[in-house]
Design a protein that fits this description.
The complex is a heterodimer of chains A (312) and B (239). Chain A has helices at 49-57, 97-107, 112-125, 141-153, 171-186, 198-204, 222-226, 264-273, 288-296, and strands at 3-15, 22-34, 38-42, 64-69, 72-73, 83-86, 159-163, 190-194, 207-212, 215-220, 227-237, 248-249, 255-260, 277-285, 304-306. With 312 residues, chain A is an alpha/beta fold. The relative contact order of chain B is 0.14. Classes of the chains: A alpha/beta (312), B mainly alpha (239).
Chain lengths: 312, 239
């Protein structure tokens, strides 16, 4: 599949005007998002997720390296016509919802009947058609996020870049957004999704990248990432629970326990020696939260601060 | 054509966002004109002209503040992200803002011109010269706004206003001292001198080539601002 979004060995440093310190937000950051996939982008606060998104949108420029969107350098305005973007903490002009979405649609080149139709469709998609004439300044945070989504999809983009799109939504609205994302994927669209809601990412994403301190620490399909190659889960029957350490008795009388890959063979032999029957042996599946905590070293990793003279 | 539409949308959006200050300015001009009409115009004619000149100066000052704060406000509120996330180049965006400030200044000068026509022309001020002076004020406003916009690409509104004042004031001092070519370099002083020296008796002073010079230099500052703005990070705080 061709890459829709490519970050090629990007370094991004932020430097305050009169301060010596440099904050490295992205450190040799390399990533590819392929056409037609939902790509989840995870990382603790300060990991560099929003910086990466801002680079892709051309809001900031890389210190080193380069990035491509649909084969054009980041920041190419005409290419952004194919992109829908929703910023974290969405900030929009205060005007009636329909006028606002029309304004953003018109900025992307829509006009006339198409603009009117697409505006209504976008408002309907985010369930705000009944609020079309209400001023956005009076919207709740959840409604703001939905109107933000409407302005991102009004021009029917090929790539959606969403920075925390569901953080302020209630479970129903979150479900609706999830369905919308899956529908967009079915239509061959690409979605680049940054979110702290791990369960949501796990449910919809085809691939996931975990970012920590400006570097991609793991990238792959959720199934591959969550299946452990070091631990296996064994389910057996006909063995007394107290005869093996760390077992968990299930309701049907079977026992379940985890073993390391190293100890797997010995454990199976022991079950058979005790007269038991092995029902299944499967790689242990972690939760995304387990993986996230393992890769990021716990919550709240800080960005790296470095004195100026150490900067490359 | 689509580019023109985008620029126009951004300009109109700027005017819409600044509608309250613009409305207050318009109403202040209207209110002062109403007071002028209520007074004894013949005996207070010098006061009326002075008020008219004062309002013209306000137009320039407000253009500097509008130009100097336009980008800052958008960046601080993060509204700039949704606009620049569309197929809008940084240059188009700046052009839209400059056009927006120009529109705001134009509306102000239009109102000042109309009210001046009602109050000054019946007591002996030349109708044509009054509108010529309005042209000078518009040129001064647009030049001031473009210089302020240039500084606001990388400075906060206060610093931007300060540097704009210095940039426009220094050639004014040199023009006052030496005249000649200095009258055409950032010719705010030359334009406003014509405006401030206007009188009922001697209305015919001309700004010479200062109006075209101001418009050309507006373009120069707009290009410089676009060049800088295309190279900065817009998603981080200015100050």
């Amino acid at each position: 599949m061709p890459a829709v979004l490519e970050f090629q060995d990007i370094i991004k440093d932020y430097r305050a005007l009169f301060r010596r310190r440099i904050v490295r937000a992205l450190d040799h950051f390399t990533l590819q998002v392929e056409e037609g996939e939902i790509f989840g982008f995870l990382g603790p606060n300060g990991a560099g997720k929003t910086t990466a998104i801002h680079l892709a949108m051309g809001f900031v420029r890389p210190t080193k390296g380069r990035g491509l969107m649909f084969g054009r350098r980041f920041g190419h305005a005409a290419t952004r016509r194919r992109v829908g973007f929703l910023a974290e903490n969405v900030a929009l002009y205060h005007r009636p919802a329909e006028n606002l979405v029309r304004f953003y649609g018109a900025l992307n080149g829509l006009s006339g009947e198409t603009l009117t139709r697409r505006t209504r469709e976008a408002l309907e998609t985010v369930s705000l058609l009944h609020e079309a004439n209400r001023n956005v300044g009076k919207f709740s945070r959840g409604m703001l996020q939905r109107i933000g989504l409407a302005q991102a999809i009004v021009h029917d983009p090929d790539l959606l870049i969403l920075d925390e799109p569901t953080s302020a939504l209630d479970p129903l609205a979150r479900y609706a957004v999830r369905e919308m994302l899956l529908d967009w994927r079915r239509r061959g669209k690409t979605i680049f999704l940054s979110s702290h809601l791990l369960s949501e990412v796990e449910l919809v994403c085809d691939r996931i990248a975990v970012l920590n301190q400006g570097r991609v620490v793991r990238v792959g399909r959720p199934l591959d990432l969550l299946e452990s190659r070091e631990h296996f889960e064994i389910i057996a029957s006909g063995v007394p629970a107290d005869s093996l350490p760390g077992t968990e008795v299930q309701t049907d009388g079977r026992i379940r326990f985890l073993v390391t890959a190293h100890a797997q063979r010995a454990m199976l032999e022991r079950i058979w020696a005790l007269g038991g029957e092995v029902i299944s042996v499967s790689p242990h599946k972690r939760t995304l939260e387990d993986l996230f905590l393992e890769l990021t070293g716990g919550p709240g990793a800080e960005p790296r601060f470095r004195p100026k003279q150490e900067a490359p | 054509m689509k580019r023109v539409k985008r620029i126009t949308l951004i300009a109109l959006n700027f005017v819409r966002e600044q509608r309250w200050p613009i409305l207050v300015l318009q109403l202040s001009v209207l209110g002062l004109a109403a007071l002028g009409l209520l007074s004894d115009a013949r005996s207070d004619r010098d006061d009326i002209l002075l008020t008219f000149k004062q309002l013209g100066m306000y137009g320039v000052a407000f253009s500097i503040f509008f130009g100097g704060s336009a980008i800052y406000n958008e960046r601080r509120s993060r509204r700039i992200l949704a606009v620049l996330g569309k197929a809008v180049t940084r240059r188009d965006y700046l052009t839209g803002l400059l056009l927006g400030v120009g529109l705001a200044a134009g509306l102000f000068c239009l109102m000042l011109g109309f009210t001046g026509t009602w109050t000054l022309c019946p007591i002996g001020f030349s109708f044509f010269y009054l509108w010529y002076l309005m042209g000078c004020v518009v040129a001064a406003c647009v030049l001031s706004a473009s210089v302020a916009l240039f500084y606001s690409t990388h400075l906060n509104p206060w610093m931007s206003a300060m540097f704009t004042g210095l940039t426009l004031g220094l050639p004014g001092v040199l023009a006052f001292e030496f005249g000649g070519l200095w009258n055409y370099i950032l010719p705010l002083f030359s334009l406003m001198r014509v405006f401030l020296k206007a009188s009922y008796e001697h209305p015919g002073m001309s700004a010479g080539g200062a109006i075209p010079a101001a418009l050309i230099e507006t373009v120069v500052f707009w290009m410089a601002a676009s060049w800088i703005f295309a190279r900065i990070d817009v998603a981080v705080a200015v100050d």
